[in-house]
């Protein structure tokens, strides 16, 4: 029996298939219908009733919880998985007075915030995800629950220079469902809730050392009509993605029910059939850091330091090591770890390192604790001199301290090289990052090599944008570092946009002037032969894609008036002025 789910306004009969333990990297929540796994992104319908007044919301994160679960775009059939940070499950910290998420958090299926589309309201591109939804009703949901909800309004979160809409909704079964019908009603029946929502979205990434987010429209939540238009816009962008008009790139688009999709498959497809049977396991223990609060005033103060964090980190590190090294801190690596955790406001991790320092110290525990407390209170960590000169110079190091750091950074590099040789690139990156954390800023060429090595790992992982960025970091430190220049050229060539190809060709031309080895020179000659034609072809293709998207956008707007772009014809001025005239054609 063929699947027709995507065109039916119901989520009835959809169940979940859970694999693995919550709070682990192996945790997945799939959806299934009639015993076959379906896509959370593409097969669950957006609309929950024929009138299109209710919507299906996929719950990713229940209220009061911290695990950052999300519909995974890169995995076939798009199960809910926990986002990773440095290879570990990601959790949102508790920022006083909030405990985890203060709403049921999830997404609308069959929507997509197109990263190629720049919103006219925010002047920023989409975040490449299904549109986010926050459900403000009184019940606490479960992971994977599909709620039927009513749209109330929307916030325009500007998250790290991307548009990240947050649709505000209420469950159809909530006691306040009949009373709250638009955004203005929320303050009437839930006073202070929108203000708290605004605050949390602004500050929730501060513990990661990132900047405070901004909210569009000066923080104002827009009304139901505006929100509905945005949701329908993202639904339109999803349609262009799923029907093949917009390139899917890394997004998995396999589905069982979208009739006009070239990615539609049958239930017996090998990808569908290969999903393991349900194997739900007990949740893993939560990290102990989730027991603590973060305070926004402290986080903002810490972030103001991080504008120049490498120099600040090493200068403060030196001053504290001098104060504590003799005789309390014999383990330099331990203390560097402490300084790094303090700098990132990872207080609970910092306290754990302090405990380890005290345990390994030759000084009596009470004396060690007193000395550490005194030093931390008087260090720059307590009152940063933001006006002062924080430039770090290697002459401030005692010779043995400098040599210790150089040696330790070299040991991390050696471990990274070993992992690289074993094709364990993620582990290699971690070791090179450790080396960067230790290596003095007065050795820019050494630091450039570590960035270059990280870039080499990313190239092996086919993460070409990350590789390009790491090479740029390396070349900023050492403009003569030809390996980094070659890797950046190769990365941009793989990124394969007209801009990236042009930048790649420029780097190859620089290499041709500087390089002496035969391999690099052959690569330069090949690039000079191949890339000009590829740049020309790619530019033409991108122009066609852009015009196609503009036409689709125009049709989506004109369609409301019974018109299309075919009703308008442009004719170039026959007198050679270069101008065009537009004529209306009644079709």
TrEMBL record:
It is found in: Cytoplasm. This is Inorganic pyrophosphatase. The keyword Chaperone does not apply. Belongs to the PPase family. Its EC number is 3.6.1.1. Its cofactor is Mg(2+). InterPro entries: Pyrophosphatase (IPR008162), Pyrophosphatase_sf (IPR036649), TPR-like_helical_dom_sf (IPR011990), TPR_rpt (IPR019734). Pfam families: Pyrophosphatase, TPR_1. The gene is PARPA_03655.1 scaffold 9273. One of its GO terms (biological process) is phosphate-containing compound metabolic process. One of its GO terms (molecular function) is magnesium ion binding. TPR repeats lie at residues 409-442, 448-481. GO terms for cellular component: cytoplasm. SUPFAM superfamilies: Inorganic pyrophosphatase, TPR-like. Keywords: Cytoplasm, Hydrolase, Magnesium, Metal-binding, TPR repeat. It is an enzyme of class 3 (hydrolase).
């Amino acid at each position: 029996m063929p699947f027709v789910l995507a065109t039916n306004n119901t989520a009835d009969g959809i169940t979940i298939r859970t694999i693995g333990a919550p709070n682990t990297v192996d945790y997945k929540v799939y959806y299934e219908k009639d015993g076959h796994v379906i896509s959370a992104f593409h097969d669950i319908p957006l609309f929950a009733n024929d009138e299109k007044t209710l919507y299906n919301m996929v719950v990713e994160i229940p209220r009061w919880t911290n695990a950052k679960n999300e519909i995974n775009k890169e995995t076939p059939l798009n199960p809910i998985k926990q986002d990773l940070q440095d290879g570990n499950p990601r959790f949102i910290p508790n920022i006083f007075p909030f405990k985890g998420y203060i709403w049921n958090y999830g997404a609308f299926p069959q929507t997509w915030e197109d990263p190629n589309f720049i919103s006219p309201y925010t002047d920023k591109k989409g975040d490449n995800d299904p549109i986010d939804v926050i459900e403000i009703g009184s019940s606490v949901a479960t992971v994977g629950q599909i709620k039927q909800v009513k749209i109330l309004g929307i916030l325009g979160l500007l998250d790290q220079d991307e548009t990240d809409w947050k649709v505000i909704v209420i469950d159809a079964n909530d006691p306040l469902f009949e009373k709250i019908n638009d955004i203005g009603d929320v303050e009437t029946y839930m006073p202070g809730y929108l203000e708290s929502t605004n605050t949390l979205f602004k500050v929730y990434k501060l513990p990661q050392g990132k900047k405070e987010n901004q909210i569009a429209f000066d923080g104002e939540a827009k009304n139901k009509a505006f929100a509905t238009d945005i949701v329908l816009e993202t639904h339109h962008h999803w349609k262009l993605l799923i029907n093949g008009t917009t390139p899917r790139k890394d997004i998995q688009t396999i589905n069982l029910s979208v009739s006009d999709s070239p990615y539609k498959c049958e239930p017996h497809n090998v990808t569908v059939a290969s999903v393991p049977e349900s194997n739900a396991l007990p949740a893993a223990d939560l990290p102990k850091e989730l027991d603590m609060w973060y305070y926004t005033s402290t986080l903002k103060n810490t972030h103001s330091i991080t504008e120049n964090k490498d120099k600040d980190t090493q200068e403060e590190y030196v001053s504290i090591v001098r104060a504590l090294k003799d005789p309390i801190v014999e383990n330099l690596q331990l203390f560097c770890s402490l300084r790094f955790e303090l700098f990132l406001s990872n207080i609970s991790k910092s306290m754990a390192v302090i405990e380890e320092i005290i345990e390994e110290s030759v000084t009596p525990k009470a004396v060690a604790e007193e000395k550490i407390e005194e030093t931390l209170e008087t260090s720059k960590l307590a009152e940063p001199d933001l006006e002062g000169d924080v430039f770090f110079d290697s002459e401030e190091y005692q010779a043995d301290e400098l040599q210790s750091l150089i040696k330790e950074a070299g040991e991390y590099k050696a471990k990274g090289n070993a992992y690289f040789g074993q094709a364990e690139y993620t582990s290699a990156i971690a070791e090179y990052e450790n080396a960067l954390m230790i290596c003095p800023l007065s050795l820019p060429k050494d630091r450039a090599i570590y960035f270059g090595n990280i870039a080499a790992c990313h190239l092996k992982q086919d993460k070409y944008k990350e590789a390009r960025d790491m090479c740029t970091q390396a070349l900023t430190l050492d403009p003569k570092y030809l390996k980094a220049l070659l890797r950046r050229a190769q990365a941009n060539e793989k990124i394969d946009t007209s801009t990236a190809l042009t930048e790649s060709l420029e780097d190859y031309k620089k290499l041709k002037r500087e390089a002496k080895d035969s391999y690099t020179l052959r690569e330069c000659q090949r690039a000079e032969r191949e890339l000009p034609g590829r740049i020309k072809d790619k530019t033409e293709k991108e122009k066609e894609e852009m015009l196609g998207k503009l036409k689709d956008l125009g049709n989506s707007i004109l369609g409301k008036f019974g018109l299309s772009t075919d009703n308008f014809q442009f004719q170039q001025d026959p007198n050679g002025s270069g101008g065009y005239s537009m004529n209306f054609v009644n079709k």
